[in-house]
Amino acid sequence: MEVFLWIMRTHYAINTFVAFPAQLFPASSLEDFIPMLLQRNITRFQPLHLTHLSRRLFTASSTPSNPELDSVLYATRPSGVTTITLNRAARRNAIDPPTARRLYEAFIMYEDDTSQKVCVFHGNNGTFCAGYDLHTAAQRSLSNKPHFGCVEGRNIGPMGPSRMSIKKPVICAVSGYAVAGGLELSLLGDMRIVEEDAIFGVFCRRWGIPLIDGGTVRLPAIVGLGRAMDMILTGRGVSAQEALQMGLANRVVPKGKGLEEAMEVAEEVARFPQMCVNVDRDSCYNAVYSAASMEEALEFEFDKGTTVLEKESWQGAARFSEGAGRGGKF
């Protein structure tokens, strides 16, 4: 029995890319272990490279859990939907340097996992993210100011993944406040599913803290220069309904329903042929951020699009010709 439990723990940990110390499953029998396993659909997360996994996997310790290691939660579904959760309730999910690193590593893990297709990013306890932790910022000086650094070939910012160009879809479920750096993190999403009481804003304006995590780049691209300037210069709060009108929010849902709606959208996107999804997504971002002209953007769209034809498109056309798609079922 002990050997069987060890195998089950190992199999579960490796297949979720999460390190589970043995004390998290202190069952002594199969009857005790299985219910505990089924209950742990969302887990404590400390991103680990696979080279570290075997060393960390069953490190027994009697010391209490460090809450900072729980500041980012990571979960996956067999359908290919990843959930990344900010979990610093005491700070309204504000980001300090350790949390920024864990959040960055979580998005790297999502990108590198070929079984995962769509990510839902949200904050626990009714708040998306209140920005950078100003208690931490108050202790910093010019001698340790953030630099435009690059780690393992991918940019990392003060808020973590804010400088990444994430290569797969991300849907943000926004509740409560998404302000300052939290607004910037929400702009990482391809879509923002927003609860009716949510507030966006450049609240860092009042403290003399600039936007250095993509806010001045992504916000004008999403809502237009005029609306972006209104938010950036005044620092005022923007309600969910106003965010919907300006294109910052894609959908507004009742309070408490943001994550549920975002998961439904993610599951829908995950069911589509993924190469085509990502080629079209890449083409949109190229047209907005990279292309020097319409001709260049159209050439990129055509070149990328034609790479999908033999791998997905012809098969899809054949399925349609054979009757698939009737009644909205594909």
Automatic annotation (TrEMBL):
Q: Does the keyword Lipoprotein apply?
A: no
**Recorded superkingdom:** Eukaryota
Key word Cell membrane present in the record? no
Q: Name one Pfam family in it.
A: ECH_1
- Pathway annotation: Mycotoxin biosynthesis
Going by the UniProt record, its keywords in alphabetical order are: Virulence
Coiled-coil ranges from the UniProt annotation: none
Similarity comment text for this entry? Belongs to the enoyl-CoA hydratase/isomerase family.
Q: What is this protein called?
A: ClpP/crotonase
- From which organism does this entry originate? Polyplosphaeria fusca
